[in-house]
Amino acid sequence: MSDTIKYLLEEERIPKSWYNIQADLPQPLAPVLHPGTKQPIGPDDLAPLFPMALIQQEVTTEREVEIPEPVREIYKQWRPSPLFRARRLEKVLDTPARIYYKYEGVSPAGSHKPNTAVAQAFYNKEAGIKRISTETGAGQWGSSLAFAGAFFGLEIKVFMVRVSFNQKPYRKALMEAYGATCVASPSNETQSGRAILEQRPDHPGSLGIAISEAVEVAAQNADTNYALGSVLNHVLLHQTVVGQEAMLQMEMANDYPDVIVGCTGGGSNFAGIVFPFLGEQLRGGKKVRVVAVEPAACPSLTRGKFAYDFGDTAHLTPLVKMHTLGSTFTPPGFHAGGLRYHGMAPLVSHVQDLGLIESVGLHQKGCFAAGVQIARSEGILPAPEANHAIKGAIDEALKCKEEGVSRAILFNFCGHGHFDMQAYMDYFADKLVDQDYDPQELAMALAGLPSVPA
Amino acid sequence: MSDTIKYLLEEERIPKSWYNIQADLPQPLAPVLHPGTKQPIGPDDLAPLFPMALIQQEVTTEREVEIPEPVREIYKQWRPSPLFRARRLEKVLDTPARIYYKYEGVSPAGSHKPNTAVAQAFYNKEAGIKRISTETGAGQWGSSLAFAGAFFGLEIKVFMVRVSFNQKPYRKALMEAYGATCVASPSNETQSGRAILEQRPDHPGSLGIAISEAVEVAAQNADTNYALGSVLNHVLLHQTVVGQEAMLQMEMANDYPDVIVGCTGGGSNFAGIVFPFLGEQLRGGKKVRVVAVEPAACPSLTRGKFAYDFGDTAHLTPLVKMHTLGSTFTPPGFHAGGLRYHGMAPLVSHVQDLGLIESVGLHQKGCFAAGVQIARSEGILPAPEANHAIKGAIDEALKCKEEGVSRAILFNFCGHGHFDMQAYMDYFADKLVDQDYDPQELAMALAGLPSVPA
Fold it and tell me: How far A424 CA lies from chain B's nearest CA (Å)?
């Protein structure tokens, strides 16, 4: 058998609609609540932040949401993305498993994030918006929105978690090359930022704080909207192009996944590859085992509480029911900035609550070892976030070896690591530590969850 | 008309052979001379450095050289690479020109370099070699050979020009992730390196010095060969997959280039896209105008002498006839390390001498402006080397606008700039200077050319 097996789709097979798992769920999502009244919010409550088209996508239960032609047009720049059979990795592992990966690093920003960035920029442009404010952790999302903004002539303002901002000056440079502006968060530009800096001028920042800042800017400026790179239903919806393509490509391979593995931070790359397959199962089709891999140091799915919580630290967002570590939880420093969020997408939380997926927490050193192993066998150096999915997939493949069974394992290789080389240098210099979260901090953060009447 | 026009070939249309322009040249290349005897060298003289298969490719005049199946197999990981019509850039420039670019940044190392790295690793492995030593400037070549070495289980030792080594720690990290070792050149590990460090301990290095070091290591170790990432005939030969694919893709576009633009350092990405089209012309087919773009600060084609010279600084290599600035010439610091070589590929030099191509020297700031322009219109951030080709192509497109004619312009977008963000930061901070070469230094370096009896 050939060593490089790449399944490529024709351009016209880029999906024409996004798949909405809300159509197939046995129980609907819990409603989003207003933080003041604790009553379900309506579309108008979100209108200061999002264009109406995205608000509708947030709540629709239609199974298929049409992808606007200008969005598909830009998708063509890098989509359909390839699906590979990891033959060389299989040989190195000496496993009977059939390992497949969908590679989203082919996008110009280097990850799956442009799938939703382009869509969000499009709808905002259509709504007459001039500027979008957003947050970014590792920088994958910020540079993806910057890329999309350049295509639609939108001004992009990015609040980047300070610790990542300092670790990754090159991500900022990439955003600027695309014409965006990027500041470290907490910043002096917002009330939320200033409040935190007053208490602690050297605060390392968090996604929760950066979200507060970006939301504040959008809420106060009529020509400015807010965009989020993960967590929300419409973001996960846009990512389903990944899984829909992967289904067609698995068909080309004449195979079907027994297990799907994805890494989870906010949940969007995971949902992107998983939901189309889960939908198939929910409609009575083939069953698939699904494993969400998260950092052991920021374990919302494995150690969090399934409860109503704020999406940000300053409590400017509505309340959503999700697996959460508490909005004040600050995970220890580790090198997958994209996975350092206190919450989990409501839809991902919900499918775990329904027993449709499993989750596991892994430490970073083993994940980096897996990343190096795949770089040397498959040739692509992964982002630290993707390393979690890779380690999860390798563990599944080694289980196959132990049990002497051949299973098809599919994972989402959500991005390359070209902007994460400092992390690899630290790994090779043995400077990485497998830190755990602080149980006391977690207990405190969970104790601070907002009370919501049943 | 659609805004994203991407021409993708089926996998089976990856070329089955490399195209050798030596078969179609009206006059043969000048022979390579032994540095001592000044007589033409034979295959045995090169045997300490290269496997015989590559030595044969260096001199063959067969038009087609078969690509071994294991090499094509690895090419499939990222080939065929896409050809884009730059519609958005055309609109921004408001030009009647039809601009096409072949994008080689899709390879795992981010440039065209793996096209030859994989081939060279294969032939060395076949010949029983355990280790390859090489030099690298910007790091594109070093990381490509590291990538190829990982696939064939070869040890890779890279001497990286010190100034780039210091500017780009992340390129080194990438090489190490692929399992290679990388040291700054001049180093203490070789006689050539030590000799230079004795004279000037803070020497910034040059490609010529790094080549000396790599050649020395290969010459002294029976299990070690040397590999070069550009300049040599067999390297240019391997790159012709680029132009061959582009020909098929221009056919899909129902168009043919009036002008082809490439950037030139050693000449390999340029030859890769240009030679298949030039061959067509030489065999009586369509004519094409060809423009080589080089840095004004290292102007081998526009200001060098077409003469016999050494490929390296310590004069360990044979003498080749090429456009050269003299092997002791050190260009001023600028941000396209891949274009900082004193010489030019003999084949590229020869076709310029035959009047088949034009050349132009450009300053870096204008090239970076062009790079930012294409990032914001086409979405891909280019390497500083590629920016030279882009600026050249934009200049041609603006000429079309001035003249009110529509010409088809094709250029080689040879790599992305993910590892060159410091250069972009310097550009945005207005820290870049359009330095020229020192005419006195050039005169001295040219005066030092070896004398070769006619």
Answer: 7
Distance separating alpha carbons of residues A213 and A219, to the nearest angstrom: 10
Domains of chain A: 71-110+234-447 (3.40.50.1100)
Determine, for residues A150 and B376 on separate chains, whether the beta-carbon distance falls below 8 Å: yes
Q: Which residue of A has its CA nearest to B1?
A: A73
**ipTM of predicted complex:** 0.95
Rounded to a whole number of angstroms, the distance from the CA of A270 to the nearest CA of chain B is 23
Q: Scan for tokens 């190490």, then name that residue.
A: B176
Neighbour-count burial for B130-149, b at 16+ CB within 10 Å, e otherwise: ebbbbbbbbbbbbbbbbbbb
Taking CA atoms, what residue in A is nearest to B178? A376
Task: Please give the radius of gyration of chain A, using alpha carbons only, rounded to the nearest integer.
Answer: 20
Q: Which residues of B touch A179 (CB under 8 A)?
A: 376
Q: What whole-number distance in Å separates Cα of residue B377 and Cα of residue B8?
A: 20
- Buried b or exposed e, range B308-339, using 16+ CB within 10 angstroms: bbbbbbbbbbbbbbbbbbbbbbbbeebbbbbb
Mean residue pLDDT across chain B = 96
- pTM of the predicted structure, to 2 decimals: 0.96
Residue A76 has its nearest CB partner, among B4, B11, B73, at: B4
Residue ranges with strand state E in A219-298: 224-227, 259-263, 289-295
Q: pLDDT for B350-376, tens place per residue? A: 999 999 999 999 999 999 999 999 999
User: Which of B8, B151, B177 has its CB closest to that of A372?
Assistant: B177
CA angle A142, A146, A149 (to 5 degrees): 135
Q: What is the C-alpha separation between B261 and B101, in angstroms, rounded?
A: 10
Structure tokens, B55: 């030595």
